[in-house]
Design brief:
- It is a single chain.
- The chain is mainly β.
- The protein has 2 helices and 16 strands.
- The chain has a 16-stranded antiparallel β-barrel with strand order 1-2-3-4-5-6-7-8-9-10-11-12-13-14-15-16.
- The N and C termini lie far apart (40 Å).
């Protein structure tokens, strides 16, 4: 279940970003400037967003600062500074006709292949000391109406005798995500559901492991509800009703959104 935790953490820390939306929705949306998360023990953590026009420049969170670099309104680089260790991880994004084909760091990466506009396969790999790539697992992303509807990844090991598979199914509301007018995120497939057009309401994670004739499976369900602004377009508060504990503590149970005018 380690990867399912990562799915939830990514949603909570970075919120939901836009994949695609109608012109009407874009005109109604404002850029989110701050998010305040409150955990079950009452602690608050703020994340601040800065922009240059409708291009997002930085995300300043409690533990990290993320800086984005653009070229022709496409994000070509993401630099994440760890505030505690003072180390920076740089992700480079490569495109073909404005479609993301690879996202890579010095130590790992993801390659994407487009079966169709809404069906994309990928390979997650590590890079060794000799700069050789080793595939860790393969996967599939399926989109519907600008939302990531299903994600699958499969790991084969033990000379093909062991197959581990994780399937993540997503459901959404019909409202605008908080960063609907920030350009570039529509292309960042590594943000997965975080870059979908609408706000995720349910994440269902199923894990299975098949070893020989024996197969074991487990499932988890995560649910989110929202309060919207006076226009009924943008979320002003998100409540997480089911969060899988991490290291004995749950993640943010309430998230408040504050917008630029």
């Amino acid at each position: 279940m380690k990867k399912s935790k990562g799915v939830i953490s990514l949603f909570i820390v970075f919120i939901s970003l836009i994949f695609a939306c109608s012109g009407e929705n874009k005109s109604a949306a404002s850029l989110v400037k701050k998010v305040i998360e409150t955990t079950e023990d009452g602690k608050e953590a703020a994340t601040v967003y800065t922009y240059e026009g409708d291009l997002i420049k930085t995300i300043d969170a409690a533990a990290t600062v993320t800086t984005f670099t653009y070229s022709n309104e496409l994000i070509t680089k993401k630099s994440v500074l760890n505030k505690e260790t003072k180390t920076t991880v740089v992700t480079t994004y490569l495109y073909d006709n404005e479609k993301l084909v690879e996202a890579k760091t010095d130590s790992n990466g993801v390659k994407y292949t487009y079966k169709s506009k809404d069906s994309i396969t990928f390979e997650q790999y590590d890079i060794d000391a000799d700069n050789n790539q080793k595939v860790l697992f393969t996967g599939l992303l399926i989109y519907e109406k600008g939302n990531l509807a299903k994600e699958e990844h499969t790991t084969v090991s033990n000379e093909g005798k062991t197959v581990e598979k994780e399937t993540v199914d997503y459901e959404y509301d019909d409202k605008v995500n908080p960063l609907a007018t920030a350009k570039g995120f529509a292309n960042l497939l590594d943000y997965k559901e975080v870059a979908s057009a609408n706000n995720v309401t349910i994440i269902a994670v199923t894990n299975s492991k098949k070893e020989g004739e024996q197969e074991i499976s487990a499932a988890n369900l995560y649910m989110y509800s929202y309060t919207y602004d006076a226009k009924g377009m943008l979320p002003t508060e998100q409540i997480t009703s089911d969060v899988r504990p991490q290291k004995g503590k749950s993640g943010a149970l309430k998230t408040a959104y504050f917008y630029n005018e």
